[in-house]
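Reopening: structure tokens for the carboxymethyl coenzyme *A complex, inputs below.
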Amino acid sequence: MTEKATLSIDGKQFELDVYTGTENERSIDITNLRSETGCITMDPGFGNTGSCFSSITYVDGAKGILRYRGYPIEEVAEKASFVEIAYLVLYGELPNAEQLTKFSSALREHAPLHSNLRTHFSGFPESAPPMAILSAMLNLVSCFHPEVLKVNVQGEAFDRTAALLLSKVRTIAAWAYRIANGKPINHPNPNLSYCSNFLHMMFSEPYQEYVVSPVIEKALNLFLVLHADHEQNCSTSTVRVVSSSRANLFSSVSAGVCALWGPLHGGANAAVIEMLEEIQQSGRPVTDYINMAKAKNNSFRLMGFGHRVYKNFDPRSKILKKQVHDVLKELNKEDSLLDIAQELEEKTLQDDYFVSRNLYPNVDFYSGILMRAIGIPLNMYTVMFAIGRMPGWISNWRELHEHKQRISRPRQIYTGETTRAYVPLEER
Ligand code: CMC
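Re-run output (same inputs, fresh job):
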């Protein structure tokens, strides 16, 4: 780090360090800006604010590049299992055969939930949103595993806690669906793979074991791999902010689930399907909806379009679009919503409003159609995203602790009243 940036304020010059990452992205260090100049920076939404140094995931929004620990998303999406990718995101390297066996057996071991947790599940009403159940139950798991509240981020204690969380999130998610639909829960089956076990816990019925189709298992695996991490997005930043107070891993990821729930983030995958269904039911041309999204006085947005970082294309969306076609073909299914989605994409690609603002389909645009194809119900789409994102959240939690990062505490510029005297009630 030899480069410097110069800031001129009140006729004085200040030298600021410039940091360069391994992919040559640059940042100006303002750590001492306030103490030296009396000024803070202003960046609502943090579009230009680096909050950490990280070696987990690299995104180049201009070129449409996404890499986990250096491995391109296109390659891992085609070749890797979610369990391998979870290991990679957590530990920095792909596992060898022995490491993978050990990691998989830890996931198997931790799949069951404490029997007392079932009492809590039964307290939720049938219509409870599975995202609310997931967030609540993740926090609650720590009550049954007091050792996780004081987990050392290094060594075996971390390994155990990470595996426990990665495994239990899947059981909780499937049980949330069963409970919310008034169905009996299914216990995990230790003989099944990560994805098959989830599908079994979701869809097996009493005396009717769900038979996992390899096409569906592969599609689910791909979905989870594509969601494993995405650097400092809203939910991961939330996990980091919560962790920075030295909160435990479970409460931190529980907060991450809440951040993910919103329709501008992970909730977009369900919102896309609701939008496509509305377009279909209305019988109106898609251009009506495109015009609505463009109108300045209308808050309507095309869900599944746009991204803070990707300004060319989202590589995950390209992979998902192809996967949707392959899966529908292999399952011999059709989905009329896919036609509407493709028409929307084609029309927006020729529309100056979308082109000039770099608004392209993001990961959530085609993922809902993939979920529909493999039989996942609408209210579970964002839960599926949360299962996929768990390795990224855990890894960011650990990285923050390893870097001994200070507590997150942004500043503000106050715009309220200046000092004034208290007015007694009878004078107001
Ligand atoms: N439809 C219509 N106009 C849009 C859209 C959209 N989906 N997204 C952005 N714009 C316009 C926006 O109105 C603004 O126009 P103008 O410059 O005239 O005011 C411009 O594009 C820039 O938008 P922004 O809101 O400043 O962009 P942002 O980086 O703050 O927000 C976003 C990014 C993803 C929240 C936003 O594009 C959006 O709301 N998209 C729809 C929801 C969605 O699909 N979310 C999933 C995000 S990807 C996966 C994930 O994170 O979960």
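Residues 89 and 391 are 6 Å apart (CA to CA). Strands lie at 4-9, 12-20, 26-28, 57-60, 65-68, 71-72. Marking as resolved unless the reporter disagrees.
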